[in-house]
Amino acid sequence: MALTGFFLVSFLMFHLTMNLFLFEGSRGSFSSFADFLGTFPIVRPIEWILFGGFLLHLLLGGFVWLMNRGVRPQAYKVKGTSKTIKLSSRLSIYTGTLILAFLVWHLIQFFIASRFAGHPVDMFVLVAQAFSNPVTIVLYEILFVILGFHLNHGFQALFQSLGLRTAKYRGFIDAVGVIVWLLIPLGFASIPLVMYFGGAR
Amino acid sequence: MDFKLKVWRQKNRDDKGHFEDYTAKGISEAASVLEMLDVVNRELVAAGKDPIAFDHDCREGICGSCGLVINGGVHGPFEHNTTCELRMRRFSDGDTIVLEPFRARPFPIIKDLVVDRSAFDRIMQAGGYVTVKTGQAPEANGIAVPKKIADEAMDAAQCVGCGACAATCPNGSAMLFVAAKVSQLALLPQGKAERKERALAMVAQMDKEGFGSCSNTYACEAKCPKGVSVTHIARLNREYLRAGFGSK
Question: What structural domains and CATH numbers belong to chain B?
Fold first, then answer.
């Protein structure tokens, strides 16, 4: 979970960096960046590694969740434990599942629509079209809140699992975590809004 | 003080069990939860009924024998105390108090509020020890241990093995217990010699006993009566990785 999680956080950072080019508008670098990724041969195996990373992450997550079911055959009458656990930690399996569901839609919307269109697609136009629909924007904004929740649990947890969240580094990791779980989703969340309200044309 | 009690009663391992209502009257506010149960039991015995079975020994928070889930919290709804240290003054007169046994698959209920925690003993037998030649005690200052290391080892050694971590963990994981023992011994020079075998053997036994996997929710740290930190779990993970991938 930890290693694939780290890999996916790195990918999110890359994805966000790329998306920030959207702010340059239709004549900016975003479309050429997307074209390059879509046509440069070396990107193909990297894409498969990325798919593999996702698959492994969700399979491991599902496996841990399944294994832990039934460890408490009878639930407590008074539910007190949940009060002591961060909401994001309690919900990580559910936020993860929602992110997966979103991802299927997201890939159909952009990846499949551009790669399998049969003709060259201007990625900026595709994105701008998608974010001209307020419903799409609302759904994406909800997703970014969910993503923030998932990262709030996941980022610090990956260091814990790797044995690096020691007494000395606990505070530092949690502080860096804020950048990851707050700023990454905020960065993503700003893009549809800016595009809709005319910040990038 | 007077209390209404809802207590889990279960005749034996195979019994389905149920909650039964009791009243505890005239309880001193200085009494512990266990002493309140003593009063209730005295009345039950006088009435010819089966007393409520519960585990206890030292009654001063150091043996790890007692352990009840009180109003949904292991060792009660407050922090850093064992069940025997929880005084009735923390509750209000007339409160309803729900008493349940620790619940986790590897802790089968023996009777009422008593659970079998021998799974922890078997984990200890798997590697929670230091192999030494018995004989004359060595010179105490022969092996220097820096104060900082000694303090950290002592923090881990505070674990009394009560099982609250596994009982409160949503996954029923015993990681904090195993981490405390592995951490304590890995930090000290006497324990370093067998650190690799220990980490592998204790984790293997933990899995064999049927405890769940840690998903880093830190529920254990929040409710550990001795305040053992989850940074010891990070050390256990490190010890395990080192044992698995490091040079032999």
Answer: 3-111 (3.10.20.30), 118-245 (1.10.1060.10)
Nearest to A127, CA basis, from A148, A111, A104: A111
**Pairing status of strand B3-9 against strand B96-100:** parallel
Q: What share of chain A is helix, strand, coil (3-state, %, to 5)?
A: 75, 0, 25
Residue A128 structural domain? 2-67+90-196
In a domain, A76, yes or no: no
Residue of B nearest to A93 (CA): B215
| Residue A148 belongs to some domain of the structure | yes
| pLDDT classification of A200: cutoffs 50, 70, 90 | low
pLDDT in tens, A11-28: 999 999 999 999 888 878
Helix axes B195-209, B118-127, angle to 10 degrees: 150
- The percent helix, strand, coil of chain B (3-state, each to 5) is 40, 10, 50
Give chain B's count of helices (H) and strands (E): 9, 7
What is the spatial distance between Cα B219 and Cα A81, in angstroms, rounded to a whole number? 7
| Interface size between A and B, measured as CB pairs under 8 A | 112
Residue B138 amino acid letter: P
CA distance B77 to chain A (A): 7
| Residue B213 half-sphere exposure toward CB, CA atoms < 13 A | 14
Q: Do B213 and A64 touch (CB under 8 A)?
A: yes
Contact A142, A80 (CB under 8 A): no
ipTM given for this complex: 0.89
Model confidence pLDDT, tens digit, residues A73-85: 999 999 887 778 9
Domain count, chain A: 1
Other Cβ atoms closer than 10 A to A171: 10
Sequence-ordered list of residues with C-beta below 8 angstroms from that of A121, at least 6 positions apart, any chain: A113, A114
Residue type at A157 in one-letter notation: A
d(CA B140, CA B137): 8
